[in-house]
C-alpha cells in the first residue's frame, strides 16, 4: 500500500533522509515542510493518509509539532499522526494518547528511523489506525508502576510492552519466536493480573493498558 | 555574633578572664563613654540654650540645626569607640550626598532615617547612658577604694578592708558586663539597616542572581546546540547506516559491520540524549515545573508521589533551581538511601515557593560530604532562598527549600 505522506521536519538533512526512507518503500510525499504553520496548511491542501512530524520546530522551537498534531486531529479526527522527537516524555505521550482513537497515533524517538524497516512498518500501522508508542515510553511506564506489575513474570512483562507498542498477538508471537496460542495465554494472564477485561480490538487494548499504567 | 564576645569572655574561667584584655578594654570604654557623654551633654545643652536665645537673630536657627545634626558626629565617635569592645566595625549608614556642596550634603542627611536614629541615640546617650557608665565605674572601682581607705580615718573600721579586697576581683566583671551591654545597644542602634546597606548589598544580590540567570541561559543554549547539532547529526548518521544496511548483501561481512556501527551510534545517541536532558530539560522551559518534575519522576526507578500546585509559573531561575533540587535529591535517594518511596511537594504561597522532598531511605545525607547538596544550597542561596536538610542516620530524609519569587 502506497501512502500519501505530509512530512514536517525543520532539519533539512533529517528531512531528506526521511523522504529517502519513505520513498524507498514506495510511499509518496504530498508535501515536505519545515514548520508547524506550513504543516497545518499542507494538511488542509493535500488531505494526506498520514502526517509524520517532528515535535520541536519553528516558529517557537518548543513543542510546535505536537500542538500542530493536536490541532490537526481537532480538524480531521481520523487523520493518522506519527510524532517524532529527540526525547520521549511521559507528558507528551499522555497528550498524544488523549487524542482519542479516531485515527492512528504514533510517538517515536527520532533515532528509531535508523531501524529503517521497522520504522516504515510503524508508519503503515499508524496509517492503519493503530497506536504505536516508543518502547522507551513503555519502559518508563513499567519502571514507574512497579507494584502491580511485580505480579507479572518477566515474559509477561515483555509481552505487555509489545502489546503497549500496539502489536497484535500474531506479531508478538513472531517477535518472541513462540506460538500465537502461547501469546494468547500470556495476554489473558496479564489482563487478569492487572484486572483488565479482555477486549477485541488491538489498539483499544493498548489504550487500556496505557491508561492503567499512566494512572 | 561578634558583640557577644565581651560576655563570652566573662563566662571563661576567672583566671583566664581576669588576665585578659577585656577588663581593661571595658574600663577604657566606660571611662571614655562617661567623659565623652559629659562633654556632649554640656555642648548640646549650651548650644540649644544659645540657639533658643538667639533664634531671633538667625544665628540661633543655625545652632539648632547643628544640634539636630550632632548625632552624625557623635555616632561617628561612638562607632570608633565601639572598636574597643567589638572588632567588627559598623559600616557608615549614610549615603553619599545626592548633590554637590554643603547644600547637597545637608539635603541628603536631613532626609535619611539614619540621621534621626543617630540623633535619638545621642539624646539617650547624653541623657542617661553616660551617667550609667559613670555610676558603674564609681560603684565597681570607687566603693572598694573608699572601703580600703576607711581605716585611715577610723582604725576600728579595718574589717572593711577585707570587704574591699574581696570586692576587687568583682569589679572587672561588673565593668565588662555593662560595657558589653552598652556595646550591644550601640551596635543595635547605629548599625545600618538592610535598606541602607542597600546600594552595595542589593547590587551583590542582583549580580548573584544575574550570574545564576546567565548560568541557566547557558545551559539552555548548550541543550539547544546539542539538539540542533550533535544529536541531529548522529541520528542522521544512524539513518544513513540503516539505509546502507538495506543495500548490503544479507549475512555479508559488510552487513555485520554496518550492524556493529549502528549499535555504536545508537548507544552514542542514547548517551547524548541523557546528557542533554541533564543539562536542561526542554519540558521545563516549555511547560514549567509540574510537567518537568512529572517527566523526571516517570523516568525514576523510585516510585515518587508528586504533588505540585502552583497558581502561576515562577521566574525561570526559581523554576530551574527547584527542578535541580528535585532531580538531585531523587538521584541521591535512588543511589544512596535504599529508599522505596519518595514524595515531592511544592506550593507557591505569598510569593515564596516552598518545596519539600522526602524519602523513606536510610538517611545520613551529609551536605559536607557530597558536592551535590552543597551545589544545591549554593544555587538556592543565589536565588535568595534557603535549603534545609534533615537526614538522621536511619532516615527518613527531608529536604526543604524556600525560594522567593519576586
Automatic annotation (TrEMBL), chain A:
Keywords: DNA-binding, Phosphoprotein, Transcription, Transcription regulation. The keyword Phosphoprotein applies. GO terms for molecular function: DNA binding. Residues 4-125 form the Response regulatory domain. Transmembrane segments: none annotated. Residues 145-215 form the HTH luxR-type domain. Pfam families: GerE, Response_reg. Gene3D superfamilies: 3.40.50.2300. The modification 4-aspartylphosphate is found at residue 54. This is DNA-binding response regulator. It comes from Streptomyces camponoticapitis.
UniProtKB/TrEMBL annotation, chain B:
The keyword Transferase applies. Keywords: ATP-binding, Kinase, Membrane, Nucleotide-binding, Phosphoprotein, Transferase, Transmembrane, Transmembrane helix, Two-component regulatory system. InterPro entries: HATPase_C_sf, Put_sensor_dom, Sensor_HK_TwoCompSys, Sig_transdc_His_kin_sub3_dim/P. GO terms for molecular function: kinase activity. It catalyses: ATP + protein L-histidine = ADP + protein N-phospho-L-histidine. Residues 218-284 form the Signal transduction histidine kinase subgroup 3 dimerisation and phosphoacceptor domain. Its EC number is 2.7.13.3. Gene3D superfamilies: 1.20.5.1930, Histidine kinase-like ATPase, C-terminal domain (3.30.565.10). The chain crosses the membrane at residues 27-47, 53-75, 119-145, 157-181. It comes from the Bacteria. Residues 29-190 form the Putative sensor domain. PANTHER family: NITRATE/NITRITE SENSOR PROTEIN NARX-RELATED, NITRATE_NITRITE SENSOR PROTEIN NARQ. This is histidine kinase. It comes from Streptomyces camponoticapitis.
Amino acid at each position: 500500500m502506497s501512502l500519501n505522506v505530509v512530512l514536517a521536519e525543520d532539519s533539512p538533512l533529517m528531512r531528506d533522509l526521511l523522504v529517502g526512507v519513505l520513498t524507498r518503500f514506495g510511499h509518496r510525499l504530498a508535501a515536505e515542510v519545515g514548520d508547524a504553520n506550513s504543516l497545518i496548511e499542507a494538511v488542509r491542501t493535500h488531505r494526506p493518509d498520514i502526517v509524520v512530524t517532528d515535535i520541536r520546530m519553528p516558529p517557537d522551537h518548543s513543542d510546535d509539532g505536537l500542538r500542530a498534531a493536536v490541532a490537526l486531529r481537532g480538524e480531521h479526527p481520523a487523520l493518522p499522526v506519527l510524532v517524532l522527537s529527540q526525547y520521549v516524555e511521559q507528558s507528551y505521550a499522555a497528550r498524544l494518547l488523549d487524542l482519542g482513537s479516531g485515527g492512528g497515533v504514533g510517538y517515536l524517538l527520532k533515532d528509531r528511523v535508523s531501524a529503517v524497516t521497522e520504522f516504515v512498518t510503524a508508519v503503515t500501522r499508524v496509517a492503519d489506525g493503530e497506536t504505536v508508542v516508543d518502547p522507551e515510553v513503555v519502559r518508563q511506564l513499567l519502571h514507574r508502576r512497579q507494584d502491580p506489575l511485580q505480579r507479572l513474570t518477566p515474559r509477561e512483562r515483555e509481552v505487555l510492552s509489545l502489546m503497549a507498542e500496539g502489536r497484535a498477538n500474531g506479531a508478538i508471537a513472531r517477535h518472541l519466536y513462540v506460538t500465537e496460542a502461547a501469546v494468547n495465554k500470556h495476554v489473558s494472564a496479564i489482563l487478569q493480573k492487572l484486572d483488565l477485561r479482555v477486549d477485541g480490538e488491538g489498539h483499544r487494548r493498548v489504550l487500556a493498558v496505557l491508561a492503567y499504567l499512566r494512572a | 555574633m561578634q558583640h557577644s564576645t565581651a560576655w563570652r569572655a566573662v563566662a571563661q574561667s576567672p583566671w583566664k578572664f581576669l588576665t585578659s584584655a577585656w577588663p581593661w578594654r571595658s574600663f577604657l570604654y566606660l571611662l571614655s563613654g562617661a567623659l565623652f557623654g559629659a562633654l556632649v551633654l554640656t555642648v548640646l545643652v549650651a548650644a540649644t540654650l544659645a540657639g533658643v536665645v538667639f533664634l531671633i537673630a538667625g544665628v540661633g536657627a543655625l545652632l539648632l540645626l547643628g544640634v539636630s545634626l550632632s548625632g552624625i558626629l557623635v555616632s561617628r565617635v561612638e562607632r570608633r569607640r565601639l572598636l574597643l569592645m567589638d572588632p567588627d566595625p559598623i559600616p557608615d549608614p549614610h549615603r553619599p550626598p545626592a548633590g554637590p556642596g554643603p547644600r547637597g550634603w545637608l539635603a541628603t542627611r536631613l532626609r535619611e532615617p539614619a540621621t534621626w536614629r543617630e540623633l535619638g541615640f545621642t539624646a539617650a546617650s547624653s541623657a542617661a547612658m553616660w551617667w550609667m557608665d559613670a555610676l558603674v565605674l564609681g560603684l565597681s572601682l570607687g566603693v572598694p577604694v573608699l572601703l580600703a581607705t576607711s581605716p585611715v580615718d577610723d582604725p576600728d573600721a579595718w574589717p572593711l578592708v577585707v570587704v574591699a579586697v574581696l570586692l576587687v576581683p568583682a569589679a572587672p566583671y561588673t565593668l565588662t558586663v555593662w560595657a558589653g551591654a552598652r556595646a550591644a545597644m550601640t551596635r543595635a542602634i547605629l548599625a545600618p539597616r538592610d535598606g541602607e546597606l542597600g546600594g552595595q548589598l542589593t547590587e551583590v544580590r542582583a549580580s548573584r542572581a544575574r550570574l545564576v540567570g546567565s548560568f541557566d541561559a547557558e545551559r539552555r543554549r548548550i541543550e539547544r546546540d546539542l539538539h540542533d547539532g550533535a544529536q541531529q547529526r548522529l541520528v542522521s548518521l544512524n539513518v544513513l547506516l540503516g539505509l546502507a544496511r538495506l543495500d548490503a548483501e544479507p549475512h555479508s561481512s559488510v552487513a555485520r559491520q554496518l550492524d556493529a556501527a549502528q549499535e555504536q551510534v545508537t548507544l552514542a545517541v542514547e548517551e547524548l540524549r541523557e546528557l542533554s536532558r541533564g543539562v536542561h530539560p526542554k519540558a521545563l522551559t516549555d511547560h514549567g515545573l509540574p510537567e518537568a518534575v512529572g517527566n523526571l519522576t516517570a523516568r525514576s526507578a523510585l516510585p515518587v508521589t508528586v504533588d505540585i500546585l502552583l497558581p502561576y509559573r515562577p521566574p525561570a531561575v526559581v523554576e530551574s533551581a527547584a527542578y535541580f533540587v528535585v532531580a538531585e535529591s531523587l538521584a541521591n535517594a535512588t543511589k544512596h538511601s535504599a529508599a522505596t518511596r519518595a514524595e515531592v511537594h511544592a506550593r507557591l504561597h505569598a510569593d515564596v515557593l516552598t518545596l519539600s522532598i522526602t524519602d523513606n531511605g536510610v538517611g545520613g545525607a551529609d551536605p559536607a560530604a557530597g558536592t551535590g547538596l552543597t551545589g544545591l544550597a549554593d544555587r538556592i542561596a543565589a536565588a535568595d532562598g534557603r535549603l534545609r536538610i534533615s537526614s538522621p542516620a536511619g532516615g527518613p530524609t527531608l529536604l526543604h527549600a524556600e525560594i522567593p519569587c519576586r
